[in-house]
Design goal:
The longest helix has 25 residues. This protein has 115 residues and is an all-alpha fold. The protein contains 5 helices and no strands. It has one domain. It starts with a helix and ends with a helix. The protein is 70% helix and 0% strand.
C-alpha cells in the first residue's frame, strides 16, 4: 500500500476514534455516533478526500488552504480538544503518529522557509 494511502487510512481511523471518544463523552453514545457527529465525520472525510495537497498533506491546523466551513472547523476543533488528551491513554501509537503529522509543514510553508 502506498505511503500516502496508509497515512490517509490512518487519518480516517484517527478521526473516527476521536469522534467516538467525543460523542461518548458529550452525547452519551457508544461506538455509534449521534447524528451531529456522523455529519461531522462525513464532512471531514469529504474534505480529506478532496485535499489539494494529496500525499504531501499537512495537518489541517497548519494548512494554508482553509477548506472547512467556519462552523465545521469550530466543531472539529472542539472534538480534537476533548478527544486528543483522552486518546493518549487509549490509542498511544495513533496519538503519537497524529502529533508527528501535526508537526509536518505544508509544502507551501516549507518552500517559504527555504527563502
Amino acid at each position: 500500500m502506498a505511503r500516502s494511502r496508509r497515512r490517509r487510512t490512518r487519518e480516517r481511523r484517527t478521526l473516527r476514534i476521536m469522534l467516538e471518544i467525543y460523542c461518548r463523552g458529550n452525547h452519551g453514545k457508544g461506538s455509534d455516533l449521534c447524528e451531529r457527529c456522523s455529519a461531522l465525520e462525513a464532512y471531514a472525510l469529504r474534505r480529506l478526500d478532496a485535499c489539494p495537497f494529496g500525499e504531501e498533506k499537512p495537518a489541517c491546523s497548519h494548512c494554508p488552504v482553509h477548506c472547512y466551513k467556519a462552523d465545521m472547523r469550530e466543531q472539529i476543533r472542539d472534538v480534537m480538544k476533548y478527544a486528543g488528551p483522552r486518546m493518549l491513554a487509549r490509542h498511544p501509537v495513533l496519538s503519537l503518529l497524529h502529533m508527528l503529522d501535526i508537526e509536518k509543514k505544508s509544502p507551501a510553508c516549507a518552500h517559504e522557509e527555504k527563502k
